[in-house]
Amino acid sequence: MLQTVLDTKPMNSLASARDAHLTAYRFMLLARVLDDRFAALWRAGRIHGGVFLSRGQEALSAAIGVSLKKGDVFAPLIRDAAGRLAFGESVLDAARTYLGSALGPMRGRDGNVHRGKPREGYLPMISHLGAMISVVNGILLARRFKNIPGTVGVASIGDGATSTGAFHEALNQAAIEKLPLVLVVADNQYAYSTPTSRQFACKDLTDKAVGYGVEAHSVDGTDLTACLKVVGNAIARAREGHGPQLVVATLLRLCGHGEHDDANYIDLKIKKSPVGRDCLKVAGDFLLRQKWADAASLKTLRDEVLHEVEEAVAQAQREPAPDPFVEEWRAISSRHLSETHEEV
Amino acid sequence: MSITYLEAIREAQAHALRDDPRVFIYGQDVGVFGGAFKATKNLAKEFPGRVLDAPISEDAIMGLAIGAAIEGMRPIIEMQFADFSTVGFNQIVNQAATLFWRTTVPCPITVRLPMGGTSGGGPFHSQCMETIYAHYPGLIVLTPATVEDAYSMLLEAVAIDDPVIFCEHKFLYYHLKAEKLPSEALPVGKARIAREGRDMTIVAYSAMVHEALEAAKELSPEGWEVEVVDLRSVKPLDTDTVMASVARTGRLLCVGEAWPWGGVTAEVIARVTSEGFGLLDVPPQRLNAKDTPVPYHPNLWTAHRPTAHAIADAARKLLRL
């Protein structure tokens, strides 16, 4: 396994480290506040379908988002609220998708975490785990065909998705083509209710990298500083032409799979272990210790974020819902080839 | 000079690669080897870097094609056998087929499926997949029966902005020949009257068109004039041409090499009976493969799929009703 170099480019000066932390922390907090708001709306019956929170995974996810550049590719998974925002998603689009606004990117056709803007390199996940990785490969290969250098693509998955055939096929494919893919695994100890002991038998998920011939990195997913360093380094290595990078972050999902799930299966011992730390609190404490923030500035930040979320939710709620009578019930773009056969 | 159905497929791909820098080919053994059936023969040499061997990973092959299509490329995917596309099924039906509807971003991919039975192929190298793909919204499913259609419809498939499942019949690869490649063609979505007749309509597609034409020939000396409609594309399905033919003949037999449950033949009959019940003089019938996996031995295989004789027998029963 590759030892991550501590002195990476985005963190090579104290000022840039401070900026990276503050930027990432803001997205972490924004994601947490937005999640809390969605959970409240769900409990109030205002959201159709499920609500899936990112609680406990914000540090890792934000580190991805702030380490990517414009023009890069990001295929987030369920618990990437922070990374999505850091990659450029607006709070309003997130709210629109959860609240089913016709003006949102998914126009009520899909909801919750199934949102994205493929033209902007931000891919909307399908529910089948591991399926987005090879799609990122395809975009990266196309960039190579088009002689657009320097693109990196990140695909996020969980420990559960490492068991899929799609994961295996896509990581192997990326390795064969030496694509600048960074595959970030959030090992959050449970795939829905299934513990990792029933998911894989290798000692560490990074062991898998050897079999694919790719570089691997481990990181404490509860520690923003570590996430920024390790994810940032993996992305830099991919960008420099070192081929696919596998990042495995250890953390704990601090909520149910969705808000319908009370997560009573989570082992109390893990909750109380360092893996169960809340990354948002850890990051906040770090900012205070470094004197990069104080109680007042954190309070101001929280107020700002709360305001931003309230505005977005209020606007999304005012927007029209999709109308089945004006909906164009056509699944292909070639209008002339849509079925002439209509139901009577 | 004559050109086979298989050569037409190769020529169409060469044409697409020549005309459009966005086109590339990706699939197992398609590179220097030229493909299991040689449908990409010499293309890797002619178009360096644009005809890529893929690992045996149908899911990732399709996923990569989808990503490339999002980025504006026009991938042509060769599934070595249509049967193996089930391994990439998830990407095809859940990712490619839903992308435009979810996001307004089109997904221009052509998936070539060498399909259908050949003697000795057996259960896993003989399947017809058109029914299963036509069932999913968001896909276009083509089933060319002639050399000309193999060429022109493949070119059109590459130009279409949506995912196209291109079902090319292996039985026709070497048998079927034409004098030259066509300069013009019916567009995708239009069926073709392969033979005119007044007494009954046989609707068929892919290799079954030729069995149906043979059956029509067999019935001709008996005094029956059978019309054969070649669907060409099963999705979209040209209901108008079928209905117009049934309006002329009053009798309908649908023939498909796929399994009987549901499917293209059932769909055609459902449409004709619900929209053109009054056009029918007798109940419509259909003939499909038997409801078992496709057998290996030629004795069993020829009895499993509809043949010209079996079609003629079914037609006689229908004509005597």
Secondary structure elements and their pairing?
The complex is a heterodimer of chains A (344) and B (321).
Chain A: H1 14-43, H2 58-67, E1 73-75, H3 81-87, H4 91-99, H5 131-145, E2 153-158, H6 165-177, E3 181-187, E4 190-191, E5 194-195, H7 207-212, E6 215-220, H8 224-239, E7 245-250, H9 268-272, H10 279-290, H11 295-318
Parallel strand pairs in A: 1-2, 2-3, 3-7, 6-7
Antiparallel strand pairs in A: 4-5
Helix pairs in contact in A: 1-2, 1-3, 1-10, 1-11, 2-3, 2-8, 4-11, 5-6
Chain B: E1 3-4, H1 5-19, E2 23-27, H2 43-46, E3 51-53, H3 58-70, E4 74-78, H4 89-103, E5 110-115, H5 130-134, E6 140-142, H6 147-159, E7 164-169, H7 172-175, E8 177-178, E9 192-195, E10 200-204, H8 208-219, E11 226-230, E12 233-235, H9 239-249, E13 252-255, H10 263-276, E14 285-287, H11 298-304, H12 308-320
Helix pairs in contact in B: 1-6, 3-4, 8-12, 9-10
Task: Give a quick set of tags describing it.
heterodimer; A: 344 residues; alpha/beta; Rossmann fold; 5-stranded parallel sheet; two-stranded antiparallel ribbon; 11 helices; globular; disordered N terminus; B: 321 residues; 2 domains; 12 helices
Radius of gyration of chain A: 20 Å
CATH topology name of the largest domain in chain B: Rossmann fold
Task: Name the helix and strand elements of chain A from N-terminus to C-terminus, one letter apiece.
Answer: HHEHHHEHEEEHEHEHHH
Sheet-strand content of chain B, in percent, reads: 15-25%
CATH superfamily of the largest domain in chain B: Thiamin diphosphate (ThDP)-binding fold, Pyr/PP domains
Kindly report the CATH topology of chain A.
Rossmann fold
The level-1 CATH class of chain A: Alpha Beta
Radius of gyration of chain B: 19 Å
Fold and architecture overview:
The complex is a heterodimer of chains A (344) and B (321). With 344 residues, chain A is α/β, with parallel strands linked by helices. Chain A has a single domain (9-320), classed as Rossmann fold. Helices cover 43% and strands 9% of the residues of chain A. Chain A contains 11 helices and 7 strands. Chain A has helices spanning 14-43, 58-67, 81-87, 91-99, 131-145, 165-177, 207-212, 224-239, 268-272, 279-290, 295-318; strands spanning 73-75, 153-158, 181-187, 190-191, 194-195, 215-220, 245-250. In chain A, the strands form 2 sheets. Chain A has a 5-stranded parallel sheet, with helices on both faces. In chain A, strand 6 (215-220), helix 8 (224-239) and strand 7 (245-250) form a beta-alpha-beta unit. Chain A is globular. The model of chain A is unreliable at 1-10 (pLDDT under 50). The mean pLDDT of chain B is 97. Chain B is globular. Chain B has 12 helices and 14 strands. In chain B, helix 8 links the parallel strand 10 and strand 11 (226-230). In chain B, the strands form 3 sheets. In chain B, strands 3-2-4-5-7-6-12 form a 7-stranded mixed sheet, with helices on both faces. A 5-stranded mixed sheet of chain B has the order 9-11-10-13-14, sandwiched between helices. Chain B has a two-stranded antiparallel ribbon with strand order 1-8. Chain B has 2 domains: 3-178, Thiamin diphosphate (ThDP)-binding fold, Pyr/PP domains (Rossmann fold, 3-Layer(aba) Sandwich), CATH 3.40.50; 192-320, 3-Layer(aba) Sandwich (Rossmann fold), CATH 3.40.50. With 321 residues, chain B is an alpha/beta fold. Chain B starts with a strand and ends with a helix. In chain B, helix 1 (5-19) runs parallel beside helix 6 (147-159), helix 3 packs parallel to helix 4 (89-103) and helix 9 packs across helix 10. The chains are: A alpha/beta (344), B alpha/beta (321). Chains A and B meet through helix 5 and helix 6 of A and helix 3 and helix 4 of B.
